[in-house]
UniProtKB/TrEMBL annotation:
It is found in: Golgi apparatus membrane. This is Solute carrier family 35 member A3b. It is a multi-pass membrane protein. The chain crosses the membrane at residues 12-30, 42-63, 142-161, 173-197, 209-230, 242-266, 273-293, 299-318. Keywords: Golgi apparatus, Membrane, Sugar transport, Transmembrane, Transmembrane helix, Transport. Belongs to the nucleotide-sugar transporter family. SLC35A subfamily. The keyword Membrane applies. GO terms for cellular component: Golgi membrane. NCBIfam families: nst (TIGR00803). GO terms for molecular function: pyrimidine nucleotide-sugar transmembrane transporter activity.
Amino acid sequence: MATAQPSRLKYLSLGVLVVQTTSLVLTMRYSRTLKEDGPRYLASSAVVSAEILKIFTCTLLVLMENNYSVRAMALLLKEEIVNKPMETMKLAVPAGIYTLQNNLLYVALSNLDAATYQVTYQLKILTTALFSVSMLGKKLGLYQWLSLLLLMAGVTLVQWPSESAGEQKVLTAGSQLVGVVAVLMACMSSGFAGVYFEKILKETKQSVWVRNIQLGLFSFVFGFIGMMVYDGRSVTQSGMFQGYNAITCTVVALQAVGGLVVAVVIKYADNILKGFATSVSIILSTLISYFLLNDFNPTSLFFLGAVLVIAATFLYSYKGKPASSTFKV
């Protein structure tokens, strides 16, 4: 009975992550291309706002875990955050990298079309696997490596850009290069930070929400400093929340919730399985683009890619259980 609940949480969190990732990509891309009167919202401000919302949400969850006792929550946070400075400082590393990654994703989606962005960003699955092997000592069998290759091939085929004459997008070579470099840097940072955070979570019995408060505090500080360094003049002139609207608030909320869902996935599953959930969301976002936005025409490559992704998911899941059982949660 005890193992059934983590198993349910694992698949529930993976399902929520698929929905969250799909919604985030679509709304973030839409928000960065939407033409409006007045200034566009600052990406650095959105990153900071998401961290504030995440800290607030985690604080409420910790309060719930302590039977809504403010005193008990305050004592717990003091004990875990203030009285254990070395443990707290360990999260400064992934917090800084996550902050950089979140800003890079806005840069990428401002300079690349969705297909190029999504295909390239799936390289984080491979970087995560490599960091999992080197940092966690995780052993991947031949079938698991094959599943990773199948996944990469499938996602590439699903998102292979169609050469449609009516879909000509003018992108300068400079902006294209900026976008690709941003995605590649995000892939490396995502792989390293995700595995580092997984290592911390699986080595402790501490509440995942307390860990996220610690992570969020560092991320807020790093994000705020970055915002003032790069967008300080705009913030001073028009305020931190300039250009915010319903779409912007939705992006911020999805990004904040996404961080929490990812933490749960890492706690009860593992980081590579999280990558597969993200890949499934790419197929969903493609379908949504076709049926709702009418800007995608499925081809034989799309169907072949979808079959490869599904096959890769089953292949990894079959061989992944013995490997992941070496971790003690």
